[in-house]
Design brief:
- The protein is of the alpha/beta class and about 550 residues long.
- Strands 12-27-28-29-25-26-13 form a seven-stranded mixed beta sheet. Strands 23-20-21-22-14-17-24 form a seven-stranded mixed beta sheet, with no helix packed on it. Strands 4-5-6-7 form a four-stranded antiparallel beta sheet.
- Helix 2 links the parallel strand 1 and strand 2.
């Protein structure tokens, strides 16, 4: 169903439906280039294109714009399909490639030549650039612009046959070198590339440019609304010019919307490639990278990304979205469903000096609101671990955790009192000696004691060693300067902790978990049964107040 409040794109769709303009119904497309991994900005476009079609009973093509064999690969094709499916969208039988239309594109290029609307140019790329002019001065026509249609056609066919070297000839549209829109100053629409294509092999040695390809593919697939980001607004006249001059009977409207910008992030493949090559990032699925694969590895649920894109809305104004909004959407998804467990990320050993015998079994729910998840078995014994930050020799005002001679309750267990602090020769605390009160068992407390607060713990005999990876913003500035990126990298964006999880958690099979007081976590792909590894998806809270309306 369409949302109650319609953005300008959905208003346009509704108007077109009501005016009877859509004989073939709503048809959208998501057209990625298979030259890298999708990022969260692409998620906005995916959600918009697939969402609009779903809401109005239409259909969506997943079309790969594979016109540059130098940068594309089957690896990226498969990764993009995996990401789109993971986000919850299905293109059914509408998987297409620009390369599916190479023969049609070539035919339309010849048609432009025959109509006097395209010519073969011998200028180099630098010469073409230097003669294009500026925003205030017109361009200079190529000396090859007035070749005859017959000469251009022969030369183009010879380009197709591989008779010329790369860079020696291109096919340019013949439009207007004095146009105020530089995109219309005789743009290149075909170039020579002796490169093997991931689908067509060596069949072609000339490849069409994006601005020529994209609009024709839209027309052939009868796209009803060609939705793209604002940087293509100046390309719209060229989009329209090509369709008008090739003689097809379907002309989709191009409609632009703002890109997604996320604070403390960049969407630059160049920058992330450099950080990966330097070894600072582990790869394109590093949980600090805003790629879909990175978000997935970090444990972000696809529903949270869909909700995030819904909340930021669709506008014509570029916007920079707060990372806290994404975190809010993640917590919103987790808080009602993720099971609870205890983990100690920075362990401090505690010896319960008055405890003797076997460990005592304790029962606790996996989730306080979901009885169907059942209960887990915990243990309490002579040796336990608590968080190092849950003890202080010199506590600040209103400190509600463990102090010397102070008392706290252990979650689901007993009240303890700290009697002695043990330190090494450097003065670092190595363990605490405490007394527990048997009559203070949680749920059966008859002790009458009033502890300051509650802390979590893991029993020594029930503790499983685990690694915890805590992620923070990758960059230190809200809007990173891409020309000076090295000085803005957050060197603490990944902190690794070696701690313990409950034995019950180690035996359970949960895709997400809330480690109480520490945050929401998922098990990393590098995790094994002998050496579990957990990625923190998001902390439990940061005090962020969600705007009433983001649109």
């Amino acid at each position: 169903m369409p949302p109650e409040v319609l953005d300008f794109i959905r208003k346009r769709v509704v108007a077109d439906v009501e005016e009877g303009k859509l004989a073939d119904g709503i048809v959208t497309r998501f057209p990625p280039e298979p030259n890298g991994f999708l990022h969260i900005g692409h998620a906005k476009s995916i959600a918009l294109n697939f969402g609009v079609a779903e809401e109005y009973g239409g259909k969506t093509f997943l079309r790969f714009d594979d016109t540059n064999p130098l940068a594309e690969s089957e690896e990226f094709v498969q990764a993009i399909q995996r990401d789109v499916r993971w986000l919850g969208y299905d293109w059914e039988d509408r998987l297409t490639f620009a390369s599916d239309y190479f023969h049609e594109l070539y035919y339309f290029a010849e048609k432009l030549i025959e109509g006097g609307h395209a010519f073969v140019c011998d200028l180099s790329s630098d010469e073409i650039r230097s003669t294009r002019g500026t925003l205030t001065t017109p361009g200079t026509s190529s000396p090859y612009r007035n070749r005859t249609e017959e000469e251009n056609l022969n030369l183009f066919r010879e380009m197709r046959a591989g008779k010329f070297q790369e860079g020696t000839k291109v096919l340019r549209a013949k439009i207007d070198m004095s146009s105020p829109n530089i995109n219309l100053r005789d743009p290149v629409i075909y170039r020579i590339l002796f490169a093997e294509h991931h689908r067509t092999g060596t069949e072609w040695c000339i490849y069409p440019m994006y601005d020529f390809t994209h609009c024709i593919c839209d027309a052939l697939e009868k796209i009803s609304h060609s939705l793209c980001t604002l940087e293509f607004e100046d390309h719209r006249p060229l989009y329209d010019w090509v369709i008008e001059h090739i003689g097809v009977n379907h002309h989709p409207p191009q409609i632009e919307f703002s890109r997604l910008g996320l604070e403390y992030n960049v969407m630059s493949k160049r920058i992330y490639t450099s950080l990966i090559e330097q070894g600072f990032l582990s790869g394109w699925d590093d949980p600090r990278v805003p790629t879909i694969s990175g978000l997935r590895r970090r444990g972000v649920p696809p529903a949270s990304i869909r909700e995030f894109t819904r909340r930021i809305g669709v506008t014509k104004q570029d916007n920079l979205v707060e990372t806290e909004l994404l975190d809010f959407c993640i917590r919103r998804e987790f808080e009602e469903s993720a099971p609870r467990s205890m983990a100690v990320l920075d362990p401090l050993k505690v010896v319960v000096t008055n405890y003797e015998g076997q460990d005592e079994r304790l029962e606790a729910p996996w989730h306080p609101k979901h009885d169907e998840l059942g209960e887990k078995t915990l243990t309490f014994g002579r040796e336990i671990y608590i968080e190092r930050t849950d003890f202080s020799e010199d506590p600040p005002r209103k400190y509600r955790r463990l102090t010397i001679n102070g008392m706290v309750r252990l979650r689901y267990a007993f009240i303890i009192r700290c009697d002695e602090v043990i330190k090494d020769i450097e003065g670092k605390i190595t363990e605490l000696h405490v007394t527990y009160f048997p009559e203070s068992r949680s749920g059966q407390d008859t002790s009458g004691l009033k502890p300051k607060g509650v802390i979590h713990f893991v029993s020594g005999n029930n503790a499983v060693p685990a690694e915890f990876r805590l992620f923070d913003k990758l960059f230190t500035t809200r809007i990173p300067d891409t020309n000076n990126i090295d000085e803005q990298i957050n060197r603490e964006s990944l902190v690794v902790k070696q701690g313990y999880i409950e034995g019950a958690m180690h035996k359970a099979d949960f895709s997400q978990i809330q480690f109480e007081r520490a945050g929401y976590f998922v098990e990393d792909q590098e995790s094994t049964s002998e050496s579990p590894v957990y990625n923190r998806t998001v902390t439990l809270s940061d005090g962020y107040k969600v705007p009433v309306s983001v649109n």
